[in-house]
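User: Here's a protein and a ligand (fe (ii) ion). What would the complex look like?
Assistant: Let me lay out the input and then the predicted complex.
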Amino acid sequence: MTTLLAQITDTHIREPGRLAYRRLNTALFLKSAIEALMRLPQKPDALILTGDLTDFARAGEYQHLSTLLEPLDFPYYLLPGNHDDADNLRAAFPHHRYLGTDDFVQYSVKVGDLRIVALDSTVRGQSAGRLCTSRLTWLAAELDRDPATPTIVAIHHPPFKTLIGHMDRIGLLEGADEFAAILNRYTNIERVISGHLHRSIFTRFANTMASTAPSPAHQVCFDLSEDAPSSWILEPPGFHVHAWQGVAGHKTSLVTHVVPIGRFDGPFPFHENGDLID
Ligand SMILES: [Fe+2]
């Protein structure tokens, strides 16, 4: 059996009719992303949205997001980013009980054969992220409850340096080492998945892999200099699909696919009558 977890991140939804940065219709982009998800030949078991759900955390933006997500015919899970507000998020999604009522939006859910442990890295009023003792203590207890099920840890701010200077300065500025130390105790952490960067980035982290996913709308410009200007670009949008295919008795691991969003020419066959087309 294959378990598919789709990941969309940094949707930055505004109220209907309002553009992000005065030029970007993020709602239209999310609509295309949802359509692309629904067109996948294999239906995801669930979708997780890893933060920056809205642009200014306003109630009307969350209402708009809720409407845009209505066409989904499989479960979705929400996690706040630095552009979000937990109270307004909870108010717009009252049936999403897993969002809880605590200081932080942290939860564990089972998706097929996978376990998703979602961590809240946000600090009210700040762009940078932080994992305080209380959040790390919750994580340690949560991972300890199930050291066997293949687990994905989701957190908006990636716990690693991306080398894009202006983004690293608003990255996970506190708690990354402690986070790694906790993950190092386990062998069932398949991936740490994040957003925030609006790009696909992969690295080794603790004894697992960490990644960030692209935005369905705008991407952060690729520039690995310390003084890179803080700017965005309309490179092809996309999302990730994390696939787990457990085979009893065999060692396996999570496979992540980057899926571009759009209408493209094709598909075209490679072969004709059994031969490669010349
Ligand atoms: Fe973002």
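Summary: The first helix runs from residue 26 to 39.
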